[in-house]
Amino acid sequence: MAAPQRQGLALLVLLAVGARAGCPFGFSGGLEDAEGGVQGAGRRLQQAGCNINTLAQQAVTNPFVPANPAQGQVDNYIKEVAWKVFQTGYPGFVPGLYKNGVLNTKVPLGGLLRLSFHDAGPFNKAAGKGGANGSLRFELGVRPNTNKNIIDAAGLCDRWRTMINNALAADPKVPKGVQISYADVYQLIGAAVVVAAGGPTKAQIYDPLPIGRRDATVADNVAQMPGGGISWDNLACLFLTNGYSLEELVALSGAHELGFRQDRTTPMTANPNSFTNEYFTAVINGNRNLFNSDRVLWGNHARSDAAVQSFANNKGVFFSAFAKASCSGCGAS
Ligand code: HEM
C-alpha cells in the first residue's frame, strides 16, 4: 500500500544524501551561496570531531536503513502506474519526460532531479526529523529553492501526482483509497529523470526504490542544505558524518551532469540534458561552469580522486555507483 495512510514500510532510502533513513544531513550552519559567498553562519558549518581521513577509512554500512525492504505487489503496481505517467504525461495537457517518443527537454530535467535531493536533504539527524517527506512543497521560494526550474518541477510533480492518483482511484486492481504521496513522487521522479536522460537503467535505479513515504505537513529546515560554494572540508565532513563514503559523495555529485546553473541558461556540463560521465572529466579539468563543491572533489583526497578518475574512465562504473548511492539499503542494484 502506498502513503500517506500506510503504516507498513518505513522506507526511507532514496535519491540523495538526506535520503538515508536516519542519517541524512545534519548541517548546523547556514547557507553558503553558489559562488562561495556566505549567508548567515554558512562558514561555520560544524565540523567538530570530524577527521576526514579517519572517517573515510571506515567501512560504510548504513545502520539506519533496513536492507531489502520488501515491497508488496501493490507498491510495485503503483510504481508502474507512476512510471507511465512520468513518461507521457497527458498529451496535450500535461507534459511528460518524453514527447512523441523523444526526450522532452522543455521539462526541467535538472530541476526535477534536484527536487528529489532537496526534499531528502534537510534531514535533522539530532531531532530525527525531515528527509524525504514531501515537505519541499512548503519550501518553495525559500533559499535554496528559489529558482524557476525547481519551482516548475514541483508544479509538474503536483500534476503528475494528481494523474497517478486518478488512475489508481479508477483501477479495480488497486485497493480503495490507496494514493501515492508527494514524498514518493519526488523520489521516483528523480530516478525516472536519470533513466530518461540515458543514465542507469530502470532496473538499476527506479525499480529498487521503495515507496510508502508519509507526507509532512510543514516545511523542513532548508537552511541545512549546502551551497555550491561549500569548502572541501565542510562538504566531506557533512557527508562522512552522515554515513556516506567519499565515493558516494563523488557519485551523487555526478547528478550535476544534468541541468543548469542559476542563470538557467549556463549548462554545468557540455550535455545538460544527457546523463553521462562527462561531469567527472569536467571536475578533473576544473571547469568553471561547475560549482566549488564539484571542483573540490578533485585534488583534496586520494579516495575522492580515485572515484572521480574511475567514474571519468568508465560510465558503467559511475552508473552503478550512482544508483547504489541513490538507493542505499534498497538491495543490490
Ligand atoms: C554535494 C553537494 C551539493 C551541492 C553543494 C549542490 C549545489 C547546487 C547548486 C548551488 C546548484 C545551482 C542552483 C541554482 O541553479 O539555483 C545545483 C544544481 C543542481 N543540483 Fe546540486 N548540489 C549538491 C548535490 C546534489 C545532488 C546529490 C543532486 C542529486 C542527486 C543534485 C542535483 C542537482 C541538479 C540536477 C542541478 C541542476 C538544476 C537545474 O537544472 O535547475 N545536487 N546544485
Structure description:
39% of the residues lie in helices and 2% in strands. The protein contains 12 helices and 4 strands, in the order H-H-E-E-H-E-E-H-H-H-H-H-H-H-H-H. By secondary structure, the chain is an all-alpha fold. It is globular and about 55 Å long. It has a single domain (17-39, 50-326), classed as Orthogonal Bundle (Peroxidase, domain 1). Residues 15-17, 34, 110-111, 113-114, 117, 147, 149, 226-228, 230, 252-253, 255-256, 258-262, 291, 293 line the site of protoporphyrin IX containing FE (HEM).
In short:
This protein has 333 residues and is mostly helical.
List keywords for this structure.
333 residues; mainly alpha; Peroxidase, domain 1; two-stranded antiparallel sheet; 12 helices; 39% helix; disordered N terminus; binds protoporphyrin IX containing FE; oxidoreductase; signal; Plant heme peroxidase family profile domain-containing protein
Number of domains: 1
Largest sheet: 2 strands, antiparallel
Query: What's the order of the H and E elements?
Result: HHEEHEEHHHHHHHHH
Task: Tell me the quaternary state.
Answer: single chain
Q: What is the CATH third-level topology name?
A: Peroxidase, domain 1
Mean pLDDT: 81
Derived from helix and strand composition plus strand pairing, the structural class reads mainly alpha
Number of strands: 4
- For the largest sheet, list the strands in their spatial order: 1-2
GO molecular function: heme binding; peroxidase activity
Organism: Chlorella ohadii
Pfam families: peroxidase (PF00141)
Keywords: Oxidoreductase, Signal
